[in-house]
Amino acid sequence: MAVTFTDLAVGQELASTTLRLNRADLVRYAGASGDLNPIHWNDRFATEVGLPGVIAHGMLTMGAAVQLVTEWIGDPTAILDYQTRFAAMVPVPDPAGSNPADAEGAELNILATVGKLDEAASTARVDLTVTLGEEKVLTKAQALVRVAAA
Amino acid sequence: MSVNAALQGTSYPPAPAYAVGREKIREFALAVKATHPVHLDVEVARAAGHADLVAPPTFAVLIAQKAEAAYIQDPASGIDFSRVVHADERFTHHRPIVAGDEITATVTVDRARAAGTGGMVTTRTELVDAAGAPVTTVLSTLLVRGEE
Hints:
The complex is a heterodimer of chains A (150) and B (148). With 150 residues, chain A is an alpha+beta fold. Chain A has helices spanning 23-33, 43-48, 58-65, 67-73; strands at residues 13-21, 79-86, 106-118, 123-132, 135-146. Chain B has helices spanning 22-31, 42-47, 60-72; strands at residues 18-19, 84-93, 102-115, 118-128, 134-144. A five-stranded antiparallel sheet of chain B has the order 1-3-4-5-2. In chain B, a hairpin with a 2-residue loop joins strand 3 (102-115) and strand 4 (118-128). The longest helix of chain B has 13 residues, at 60-72. The chains are: A alpha+beta (150), B alpha+beta (148). The interface between A and B is medium-sized, with 33 and 33 residues.
């Protein structure tokens, strides 16, 4: 069922999810994206450059978070514009005794709300709140989505 | 070293065209946990009116970053890549990217500011298809941390 303007109001919560990123997810994104910066897969290097350890690619968090918007609107090509600021890093733990391929990893909470509606342009701005614990890791994470007229 | 503000407004010659492949779209979709069938199943993508598999919303970063490298790796840019932090990213889609596209990307330095031994740079990368029609505009801001 297609989403239409009559279903939406500014401030409305649309969907929420939990995104888990473990070391295997980071390696997979490194390979798929070609971003081989070792801060995303090598603890020694990451700590030597002053990080707490391996951190997730900002672009992985951005790319995975928008899946919530795709699921809500039902069509990835309805996302006309998507932007974010990277506000905080996402350290990805590697607990002793765990298998990095299926470890729980870092747990991000993602909430999608209606930020703005523009019926003349047939668009809704969906704002994503992406948090790790109490900390926002993305800010101004906004997807402009094409919405059918009522 | 610090960011060279004199390069603000400069455009670099485009990187060789990027050929968008089905398996790359599938691989990238898996990596960002994008599960919509238009990324994975050609028949579903065609039934939805697309020429082939559709790339996820942030796929354009692959193409843009290859173009941005012309600037970031330019010794004249004054950017020490080991001190770079990604500050923000934006994709404006003029049409979906689909498998089979041949995309040419041209990077322009929209903003370059020096601050101490670092600074901040914003690049705008225009992606166009083989016919020269706009596909995606990618804005990316990098913070270059100064040395203590």
